[in-house]
User: Fold Flavin-containing monooxygenase from Dorcoceras hygrometricum.
Amino acid sequence: MARKSDREDYFSGRCILVNGPVIVGAGPSGLAVCACLRKQEVPFVILEKDDCIASLWKNRTYDRLKLHLPKQFCELPFIPFPHNLPQYPTKHQFIGYLESYARHFKIDPRFNESVSSAMYDETCGLWRVKTVRRNESGVEYICRWLVVASGENAEKIVPEFQGLDEFQGHVTHACDYKTGEVYRGKRVLVVGCGNSGMEICLDLCHHNATPFMVVRSPVHVLPREILGKSTFELAVTLSKWMPLWVVDKILLSAATLILGNTQKYGLKRPCLGPLQLKNSGGKTPVLDTGTLSRIKSGEIKIVPGINKFLHGDLVELVNGEVLEIDSVIFATGYTSNVPSWLKENELFSGDGFPNGWKGKAGLYAVGFARKGISGAALDAIKVAQDINKLWRNETKQKSHSIGVPCHQRFLIGTVGTDRSIEFGYISNHLDLEFTPVLLNLFFCQPDLGVSDYT
Ligand SMILES: Cc1cc2nc3c(=O)[nH]c(=O)nc-3n(C[C@H](O)[C@H](O)[C@H](O)COP(=O)(O)OP(=O)(O)OC[C@H]3O[C@@H](n4cnc5c(N)ncnc54)[C@H](O)[C@@H]3O)c2cc1C
Assistant:
C-alpha cells in the first residue's frame, strides 16, 4: 500500500483518471474482461506493453502451433469460433478470431504502455498505475478497480547451467523459435518435454534436423484423441460423473492401448494420474500430436538432464555422456511478471500467481487459474459482473453534492473516447468550475477531493 514518500511524485507526469477499471494486458484474458464490461456498459481502460493484442500468440509462438485444446474450450465469452474453422485452429486462425473479437467489442488498448508499478493508495481509496512507454515519459492512471490480466506466461524461464556462457552454439528459448528451417541438418538439444518441447522436436524432424530431448522428470503423454473424441473433452465429461482418480485410470489405460508403454522410450509417468497431477498444481499432460512416433522411431533421442556445457559445442549429461550439438532450445516454460510491478501481497503471493480471482480494494485477477483460455473466460465473466455491480452503486452515490476542497493544483482535462479524462496540472490553482465535474465523475467517495492526491 502507498506510503507518503510514494505519493510525493503524484502528478509528476501525465495523469489520467479512469472512470472504471484499468485492465493490464490485452491477451485473451484482458479482451474477455473488456468484452464483458462493454456488454454491461462499464467504461474501462486497457493497457498493453506490446504494440498489438495477443502478443504472446503473435510474437512468441512457433509457426506450426495449433490450439492444444479443441476450439470449444478456447472460446471467449459471447462469440463462438466460426463453424468453418477446424477443431484445432491454427495460431493464425486463433489470432484472427481474437482480432475480430476486439473489433466487435470496440476494444482499443493503449499499446506500448508497460505497467511498471501499481499500488493502492489507502488515503484516497484508489489505485495508482504507472506505465512506461518507449522514448516517452510515463503516464499515471488513477482508478478504483485494477484487473491483472498480464498472463501466466509473461516471462520466459531460462535455467542456469554451468558453462552455458562459453557454449559456442546457438542458444534460444521456445518463445523465439519460429520454425525448424534454420536448424536443417543441425544437432539440436531441446531442453524440456512439455507440449512446446515435444512439438518443437517434431518440427525439427520435419526440417531434417536431429533433435535430442532432455527429459529430467516424469511426464504424462496422452493421445490427443481417444476413439475419435478429444481426450480433453472426454476427461471433462467423465470428471463430471466420477472421481478424478477413476478418470485418470481410464485415460491411462486408453493411453497405453493407443501409445504403448511410454516408459520404454524414456518417458516415465508420474505416480499421480494426469488429472490429479494437474489439479494439484502440477504439470499439464502432453497431448501427443505425432512426436511419440518420432521418439519410437529414434528420430528424436531422449536424453537425461544436463550436467554442464563444455567448451566449444559440447554438453555433458548427468549420466556422464558427452554430446556434440549445434544449438540449444530451452522449452523450459514461462512465469508471471506480476511481482515486478504490483505492490500487493495478499491476492498475489511472491510467485506472481493469485490465490483467487478477487482481492481487496478493487483488485482482480483474470487468467491465472492454470485452466487455459476457458478458465480465463470464466474469470472474466465473474470479474466483470462484480465490477459492474460496484461501479453502478458507486456511480449512483456520486450524484451527491460534493464540497470543493482546497487545492494547490490546477487540473485541466479532456474527455477521451474511452470516457477517461486526461489531466495535466499547470498551476497552483483550483479550477472551481471543472473540479466538481471531475469529482462527480470519478471519485468514488463523495467527500474525497483532488487535494487528497497531491
Ligand atoms: C505455446 C503455447 C500454446 C498454448 N496453447 C493453448 C491452448 O491451446 N489452449 C489454451 O487454453 N491455452 C493455451 N496456452 C496458454 C495460453 O498462454 C493462454 O491460455 C492464453 O494466452 C492466456 O491469455 P492471457 O491473456 O491470460 O495471457 P497472455 O496471452 O500472456 O496475455 C497477457 C498480455 O499482457 C501483456 N502484459 C504483460 N505484462 C504487462 C505489463 N506489465 N503491462 C502491460 N501489459 C502487460 C502481455 O504483453 C500480453 O499481451 C498456450 C500457451 C503457449 C505458450
